[in-house]
């Protein structure tokens, strides 16, 4: 019976991935229906906290976008990259990491991609090298961002074990930075030089290089900068309140004074920022809900609702079986659990959904909180299958043709920097935990 249930789960996941968009969410809901009404499984916990976090954070990001704050950030990044063209292979991933860390979404990398391609080609550097590193590093930074759905989901899972949000990001920030550097290093000499690339030479000879026309410089309103400062202040306030619970309002509870939960704090702070962005920074409400940022958040929320709820139902119903068969193996080699997390990330296409599904399983299997924090970057397996939106966009924006998806699906431009980034991030996480003596 377990195998039939697993077949339903995998079938729903693969069908949803093929559908794209919110497909994984709706097929996950259908799979949950079958597990409940056909197999009689008790529904697991719906990931309401994570969904509310996504909605509040993506609303704030949409306000930042509407107020032209993202344009302001991209402009700063573009000037920095153009001033250092010779080092773009090393700098582009770090800029991508920082942009995602500050903005709370990996899709900000889409705005940086044309700049990276332009600077690399003018410098004679194969654009694939910095572009692949940028794409992977911007996704890897999700697990370092204190307001991302994945980070908050892990903090929620580990909170009963005395782990705070700051305990997670103290490890994930340096670990993912090291990972981004590792991903850029493996790309330094990757592939033929641009001048020797046959695809590029053929496009040059045939006039097939379609360079985008330089857009006129648009003056940004002064409020664009203030919207960025306000967003960064909000993120800093969230980190401060996570690090110092005594600053949060508290009420008498069963265990004494209980401060307001960080899940609620993040939602309140992000929605408050959104209100201020509309009132003071000219963010347009209609533009917010119709923009790309809000749409991507809606897709993520539906995906997590269906896929994570279905997966949690299956795992909780069969938890004794998992504990009996694999708990001894996991305890002897905890890093093996990272492979399971990574595989689930490849399937689910979402860091947040993977965290919500796999980290509670890790706790149930008896893995210590430091181990789960160290392997947290394994949830960034979204780059393995070249159908993730950021990967497709990078291939399409590289007009030189150096960034490619291979004939065998997995032999694409992002697999090497991706694996190097993930492996280095996890290794750095374990090393940092060892240095802390935990």
Give a quick rundown of the structure.
Helix content is 69%, strand content 2%. The chain has 438 residues and is an all-alpha fold. Helix 1 packs antiparallel against helix 2 and helix 14 packs parallel to helix 17.
What would your notes on this structure say?
By secondary structure, this protein is mainly α. The protein has one domain (45-209, 221-435). Helices cover 69% and strands 2% of the residues. The protein has 20 helices and two strands. A two-stranded antiparallel ribbon has the order 1-2. The longest helix is centred in the last third of the chain and has 26 residues, at 292-317. The radius of gyration is 22 Å and the shape is globular. It is found in: Cell inner membrane. Responsible for the transport of C4-dicarboxylates. The chain crosses the membrane at residues 6-39, 46-67, 87-120, 168-188, 228-247, 259-280, 292-309, 329-349, 361-385, 414-435.
Question: Topology, pairings included?
Answer:
Layout: H1 2-19, H2 23-37, H3 48-66, H4 69-83, H5 88-103, H6 109-123, H7 128-140, H8 149-158, H9 165-185, H10 198-206, H11 222-243, E1 250-253, E2 256-259, H12 262-280, H13 285-290, H14 292-317, H15 319-332, H16 336-348, H17 351-364, H18 369-374, H19 389-397, H20 415-435
Antiparallel strand pairs: 1-2
Helix pairs in contact: 1-2, 1-14, 2-14, 3-8, 3-11, 3-12, 3-14, 4-5, 4-6, 4-11, 5-6, 5-7, 5-9, 6-7, 6-19, 7-9, 7-20, 8-17, 9-20, 11-12, 14-17, 16-17
